[in-house]
Amino acid sequence: MEILAVILGLVGGVLAGLFGVGGGILFVPTLVLVLGLTQVHAEATSLLAILPTVLVGAWRQHRHGNVDWRAALLVGLGSVAGVEGGVQAAKALPEDVLRRLFAVFMLFVAANLAWRAFRPKPPYPSERDPA
Amino acid sequence: MKLLAIGLVAGVFSALFGVGGGIVIVPLLVIVGLPGRMATGTSLAAIGLTAAAGAVAYGLHGDLKPGAAAILGVPAVLGVVVGVALQQRLAHRTLTFGFALLLTAVGIRLLV
Questions:
Q1: Which of A64, B68, B98, B100 has its CA 20 to 30 A from that of B109?
Q2: Residues of B in contact with A81 (CB under 8 A)
Q3: What are the boundaries of each domain within chain A?
């Protein structure tokens, strides 16, 4: 199963590079369905797994002059205040409810991507960069 | 102030679902006036902090599996470089729709 997970990690990275939707959306189900983690453990672990990809992506965007570092720092600092709320909510919800909420989120992202695919022009010129 | 508020929302969302939260951050940055290209780049840099904070918070609760994270995260770095290179050469619309179908299938699998 580890080999399958490695392949899916690679695929997650390729898709992040292609579509600008980060690895997390694929990492969480891979960790649950392939490696057998609980939904909470999968979400925790996904956050760690996306870090290197995000850092490479940010560095690449920085070289293109596409990072407003002051704004990034403020958003990042705000998010530090918010994460504990998200962690508490995830841990308070029953496992199957959290998994189904995540599934609904996946369907929302799928709809968003499908809409993007059939729209004549993307609103963000570089939205295909890794995110 | 607006940027801190965006971060707060993104932080809750990111930790709740175990994702970066770019799908929330990018449109909100566009709403407060960043051009699209800057919004995506800035979102990535912000997610670096968000994901690190989320991983630490979950880690303090003892929910982190570093071995499993390495199994996915290390090949993903290689993948993202390949993905960015492929982006220029592939029929993007078909691929995007294909990815949407894949997410739909996995989403339904998790729902039932």
A1: B68
A2: 4, 7-8, 11
A3: 2-117
**Residue among B10, B18, B70 minimizing CB distance to A47:** B18
Average pLDDT on A64-77 reads: 93
Name the amino acid, one letter, at B15.
Answer: A
The pair of structure tokens assigned to B55 is: 């991983």
Q: Taking a C-beta distance cutoff of 8 angstroms, is the pair B77, A59 a contact?
A: no
Give, in order, the Cα–Cα distances in Å from A6 to each of A76, A99, B31, B57, B84.
29, 22, 37, 25, 19
ipTM over 0.95 threshold: no
Tell me: pLDDT of A73 over 50. Answer: yes
Helix (H) or strand (E) holding A98: helix A95-117
Can you say whether residue A32 is alpha, beta or left, with left for phi > 0 and alpha for psi between -120 and 50 degrees?
A: alpha
Output the six-digit token pair for B68: 């499993």
Closest CA to B97 of B86, B88, B108, B105: B105
Would you call A22 and B22 a contact, using CB atoms and an 8 Å cutoff?
Answer: yes
Which whole number is the average pLDDT over B41-53?
Answer: 92
pTM over 0.90: no
Which pLDDT value is given to residue A131?
46
Q: Do B18 and A43 touch (CB under 8 A)?
A: yes
Q: Say yes or no for a CB contact (<8 Å) between B80 and A53.
A: yes
